[in-house]
């Protein structure tokens, strides 16, 4: 499964620098020069269709051969095989697609470096005035994409020369935009201005005729306190322009010179003195060896060479990422360690973090381990140390008043700031070992830092077992793919290398035949081979070779059995402690210090353990610990876990997560299990590791549940934290179900504050519904009403959260109580003046502002206010949410450019803030928006792609239904609704309580001539909800009425849709559409035999809507309807 996930990663194409493509991380064979130029030409078209005739002209400038068209088809066929090697036969291509009369490249912008480059520059330009810091990041990321001249391989072709010139000009603009952003970001800081100077000096030297470059250089020099140099730069600019072009500088340069001479305050202050930058001391932490001192390192010459290449590239300031993947025992850690020791001897700073296989290490432990190692040698300044606090001290717990999203972003930013500063003193190697065991927050921070450190002399090396890739790691690897990591897959050693390894650990003389046999049996696995060699040495060559164990577990069991019984007992105790064990704990378990020391020495002699530090013992490999642990009975394990917990309390009380784990596993002391698990959960929350925190809170709840009725108050309080952590981790469905069960218990318990807190624990906002669509949960509504009636007056904040919870539960219901209570919540929140509470209440109001077409303006106003509040007060989740809401209102307002802008910003922020659910929804919405209003074939491909990836989001089947509905609407307009009878039957069955599904299924039945069945289905249709699907469901109902000849229903639909006449159907969600509402109104008017001019007026309005949305196929449809009426389009 893990290899399949790896192969399914996105296709990546590069034209900036060396031209090439990768599929699933491997180079794609793009063929010869002319075939390669086909792909390059389609990249230059930026996703647009290129006619086949134009491609022929571009491939063969001048005179094309007679069979040029056949040659082009052949090139396309070969490229499709290279770009989609796993595509089943006779299925349509999804990357290089046929789009009559030519071809187009269908890839996300992020998968083509030139497209990504363009998009980042556009985003930087939009952000430059309002958010210069964000603009600078975008410009820097754009410049990072530039790895050499664009389309260099095709420089002699006219189309390539033109596109390369365009991109080169864009690069110059990005350089200037980055400098301007730096100057705008902190206009009065000399250090900031000085940072811009070197690049601008190089830029003006390379482009001496660019007046904007000279202006920025002079301004940066002036703000850096170098007035004389600033004026000298302006004189050089004047001289260059005069000599080269015979012209004087333009108004901007002349005005700047005047301002500098006058020391105009508008240019920024010059008398500000800043603290000098202090360089951190150089340090070289070296990881403890994974193998015992006598271990022989064999082979891996090509792999080490690739690592060295990556290190050389990183030293130049380009950063780097290496992924080492292999099976257990294949030597991932040993290879990384060998490489790290080499770099540590060459003035690199090296640090190491290991994910724990035991699962009870603190959240984000590899980063905590790595940072503690580094900060001990190079302490950060106090302010930065405080920001890093949650990772440097396990006792730090989360602030309840801080927005979780923003807090997480700040913590990640602090880590990046520290490592960036450290890399300024010496190249930095960071090794993250055993990522297959890593938790979500470890992986999230890796993804964030891979982006942050990409332009620094930092090399990230990560190892993992390629046969043990959980979903969270697969997701992280997919996110890291855009950085084009070096992938090293370790296989087995060769027979000669096995021979060296065996002879290095076995004193006996082993002949070539026996060595070949061992190599075959072990598959060249270094750990298996080494352990087999030691076993042969211990048992005798002649006897042992004839019974070489089939697996490494058998080897280890036989080797452990050769130890004294007392040593085996101590090592079994150590296996319960974990991969690493404190000797003080082992002494307490064994009762005799000499007994433990003798056992450790026996393990050292046998190569089973190492001593990483004084008083510490570590198993040489996780397989050794696993073998010992698996050999202990369940009864003995349970007892030992309890004793280990007690020993850790005395000797290592700071290891809260480990103590919690051992008490929980022992089941013998519930009070302590709860106390330590609660502290571990709070520490995880401080690191924003919500999934880890949720798992711990669940264990707390389970333990308290086992304590019976006397613990119900404590249990319910713990459930508040568990539900919230679950929701923050993105498990919306689980969190809601849990809250429902907790509400019942809380109502029975009678504590209204606890009941209110449980209800409010689920207020983590998402763009999509937080409950199953169309079903009113009476139990939740009743509970909220009860809590509101009983809540004391001294809980105004809790009251606002309850009102908002009720408003969200009631959205879309026939009555308007949801809207009423949402407005009440907004009034009370505004009076309290709490920004986060105000955002909560406004979101409830937004959810209830879909009832009529007139509410569009209100939704737009609410979303804009949420965005203003979230931006001013750094409320990350609401900032993302508001952008996604603004995207929806922009589509409904026929402003697709604004919709794309807000969606792009929301998606970027969701990734930056580490919001997996909202990031996934943003990617989903991007696909929906791309399909919205596109030609039917393009839109259907987009819906198909979304359908394939729907597993990323799971909210009560809404994600599947959305793509199904979108595809149905497309086919309905094409007269192909009958093709979807079975799928619409599923939709009707799954959502039988939703009136619109009856219309959809009935229309599909009508499409294949099954009118009697359609009438039966239609007769059972429920009334339509006045919610965000009304502007799609009512047009569908109107179309069903016309198809079945129901004039009364058609008249009802016509009246209901008139207020939406200037909008596009489905615009409220931008998920699926039938085109302009006016088009359907025109059809209804004709069906109802209204005056011809009434229908014509609707069709003319449909032309206007379609034109504003840039949907020419809708325009053509409306004009055709006007032609049939004999009425002009305007």
Automatic annotation (TrEMBL):
Q: Where is the OmpR/PhoB-type domain?
A: 1-107
Q: Which GO terms describe its molecular function?
A: DNA binding
Which keywords does this Swiss-Prot/TrEMBL entry list?
DNA-binding, Transcription, Transcription regulation
* Family annotation (PROSITE patterns): OMPR_PHOB
The protein's matches in InterPro entries, at most eight in alphabetical order, are given as:
AAA_16, AfsR-DnrI-RedD_regulator, BTAD, OmpR/PhoB-type_DNA-bd, P-loop_NTPase, Sig_transdc_resp-reg_C-effctor, TPR-like_helical_dom_sf, WH-like_DNA-bd_sf
Q: Which residues mediate DNA binding here? A: 1-107
Q: GO biological process: any one?
A: phosphorelay signal transduction system
Q: Which family does it belong to?
A: Belongs to the AfsR/DnrI/RedD regulatory family.
**What is the recorded name of this protein?**
ATPase
Protein source organism: Actinomadura spongiicola
């Amino acid at each position: 499964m893990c290899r399949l996930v790896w192969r399914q990663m996105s296709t990546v194409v590069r034209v900036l620098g060396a031209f090439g493509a990768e599929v699933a991380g491997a180079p794609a064979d793009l063929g010869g020069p002319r075939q390669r130029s086909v792909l390059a030409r389609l990249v230059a078209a930026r996703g647009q269709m290129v006619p086949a005739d134009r491609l022929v002209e571009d491939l063969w400038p001048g005179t094309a051969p007679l069979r040029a068209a056949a040659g082009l088809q052949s090139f396309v066929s070969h490229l499709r095989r290279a770009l989609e090697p796993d595509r089943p036969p006779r299925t349509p291509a999804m990357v290089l697609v046929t789009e009559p009369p030519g071809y187009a490249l269908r890839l996300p912008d992020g998968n083509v470096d030139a497209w990504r480059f363009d998009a980042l520059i556009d985003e930087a330009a939009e952000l430059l005035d309002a958010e210069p810091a964000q603009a600078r990041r975008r410009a820097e990321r754009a410049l990072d994409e530039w790895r050499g001249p664009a389309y260099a391989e095709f420089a002699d072709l006219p189309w390539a020369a033109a596109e390369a010139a365009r991109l080169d000009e864009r690069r110059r603009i990005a350089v200037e935009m980055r400098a301007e952003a730096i100057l705008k970001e902190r206009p009065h800081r000399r250090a900031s201005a000085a940072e811009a100077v070197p690049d601008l000096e190089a830029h003006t030297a390379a482009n001496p005729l660019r007046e904007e470059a000279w202006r920025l250089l002079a301004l940066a020099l002036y703000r850096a306190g170098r007035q004389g140099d600033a004026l000298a730069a302006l004189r050089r600019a004047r001289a260059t322009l005069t000599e080269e072009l015979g012209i004087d500088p333009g108004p901007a340069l002349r005005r700047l010179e005047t301002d500098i001479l006058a020391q105009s305050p508008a240019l920024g202050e010059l008398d500000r003195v800043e603290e000098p930058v202090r360089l951190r001391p150089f340090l070289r932490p070296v990881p403890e060896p994974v193998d015992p001192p006598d271990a022989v390192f064999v082979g891996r010459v090509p792999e080490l060479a690739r690592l060295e290449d990556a290190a050389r590239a990183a030293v130049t300031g380009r950063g780097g990422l290496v992924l080492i993947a292999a099976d257990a025992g294949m030597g991932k850690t040993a290879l990384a360690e060998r490489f790290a020791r080499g770099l540590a001897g060459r003035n690199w700073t090296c640090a190491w973090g290991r994910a724990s296989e035991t699962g009870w290490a603190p959240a984000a432990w590899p980063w905590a381990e790595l940072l503690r190692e580094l900060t001990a040698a190079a302490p950060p300044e106090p302010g930065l140390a405080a920001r890093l606090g949650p990772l440097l001290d396990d006792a730090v717990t989360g602030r309840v008043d801080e927005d979780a999203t923003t807090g997480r972003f700040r913590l990640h930013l602090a880590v990046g700031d520290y490592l960036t500063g450290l890399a300024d003193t010496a190249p930095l190697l960071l090794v993250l070992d055993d990522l297959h065991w890593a938790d979500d927050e470890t992986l999230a921070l890796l993804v964030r830092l891979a982006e942050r450190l990409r332009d620094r002399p930092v090399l990230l090396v990560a190892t993992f077992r390629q046969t043990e890739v959980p979903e969270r790691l697969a997701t992280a690897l997919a996110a890291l793919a855009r950085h084009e990591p070096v992938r090293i897959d370790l296989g087995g050693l060769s027979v000669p290398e096995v021979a060296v390894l065996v002879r290095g650990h076995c004193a006996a003389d082993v002949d070539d035949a026996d060595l070949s046999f061992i190599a075959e049996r072990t598959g060249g696995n270094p750990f298996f081979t080494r352990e087999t060699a030691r076993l042969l040495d211990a048992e005798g060559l002649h006897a042992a070779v004839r019974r070489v164990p089939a697996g490494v577990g058998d080897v280890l069991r036989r080797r452990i059995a050769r130890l004294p019984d007392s040593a085996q007992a101590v090592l079994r105790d150590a296996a319960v402690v974990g991969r690493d064990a404190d000797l003080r704990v082992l002494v307490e378990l064994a009762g005799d210090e000499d007994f433990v020391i003798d056992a450790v020495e026996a393990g050292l002699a046998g190569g089973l353990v190492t001593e990483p530090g004084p008083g510490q013992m570590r198993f040489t490999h996780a397989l050794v610990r696993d073998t010992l642990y698996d050999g202990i009975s369940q009864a003995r394990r349970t007892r030992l876990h309890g004793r280990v917990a007690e020993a850790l309390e005395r000797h290592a009380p700071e290891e809260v997560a480990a103590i919690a784990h051992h008490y929980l596993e022992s089941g013998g002391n519930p009070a302590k299990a709860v106390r330590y698990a609660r502290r571990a959960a709070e520490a995880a929350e401080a690191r924003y590791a919500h999934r880890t925190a949720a798992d711990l809170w669940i264990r707390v709840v389970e333990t308290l549940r086992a304590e019976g009725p006397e613990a119900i108050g404590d249990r319910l309080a713990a459930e508040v934290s568990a539900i919230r952590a679950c929701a923050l981790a993105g498990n919306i469905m689980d969190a809601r179900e849990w809250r429902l069960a907790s509400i019942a218990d809380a109502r029975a318990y009678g504590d209204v504050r606890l009941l209110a807190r449980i209800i409010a624990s689920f207020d983590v906002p998402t763009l999509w519904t937080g409950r199953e669509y169309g079903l009113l949960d009476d139990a939740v509504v009743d509970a909220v009403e009860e809590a509101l009636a009983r809540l004391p007056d001294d809980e105004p904040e809790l009251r606002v959260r309850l009102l908002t919870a009720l408003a969200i539960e009631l959205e879309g219901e026939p009555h308007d109580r949801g809207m009423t209570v949402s407005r009440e919540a907004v009034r009370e929140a505004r009076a309290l003046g709490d920004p986060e509470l105000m955002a909560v209440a406004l979101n409830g109001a937004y959810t209830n502002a879909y009832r009529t077409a007139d509410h569009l303006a209100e939704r737009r106003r609410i979303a804009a206010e949420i965005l203003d509040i979230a931006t001013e007060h750094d409320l990350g989740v609401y900032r993302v949410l508001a952008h996604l809401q603004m995207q929806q209102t922009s589509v409904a307002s026929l402003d697709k450019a604004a919709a794309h802008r807000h969606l792009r910003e929301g998606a970027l922020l969701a990734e930056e803030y580490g919001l997996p659910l909202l990031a996934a929804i943003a990617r989903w919405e991007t696909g929906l928006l791309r399909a919205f209003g596109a030609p039917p074939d393009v839109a259907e491909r987009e819906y198909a792609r979304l359908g394939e990836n729907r597993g990323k989001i799971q909210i009560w089947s809404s994600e599947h239904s959305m793509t199904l509905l979108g595809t149905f609407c497309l086919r309905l307009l094409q007269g192909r609704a009958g093709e979807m009878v079975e799928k619409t039957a599923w939709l009707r069955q799954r959502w039988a309580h939703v009136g619109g599904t009856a219309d959809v299924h009935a229309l599909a039945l009508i499409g294949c001539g099954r009118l009697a069945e359609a009438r039966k289905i239609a007769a059972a249709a429920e009334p339509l909800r006045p919610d965000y699907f009304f502007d799609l469901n009512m047009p569908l109902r109107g179309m069903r009425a016309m198809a079945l000849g129901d004039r009364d229903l058609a008249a009802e639909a016509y009246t209901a849709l008139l207020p939406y006449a200037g909008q596009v159907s489905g615009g409220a969600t931008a998920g699926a559409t039938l085109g302009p509402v006016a088009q359907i109104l025109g059809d209804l008017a004709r069906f109802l035999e209204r005056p011809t001019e009434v229908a014509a007026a609707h069709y003319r309005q449909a032309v206007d809507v379609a034109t504003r949305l840039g949907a020419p196929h809708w325009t053509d449809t409306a004009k055709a309807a006007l032609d049939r009426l004999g009425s002009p389009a305007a």
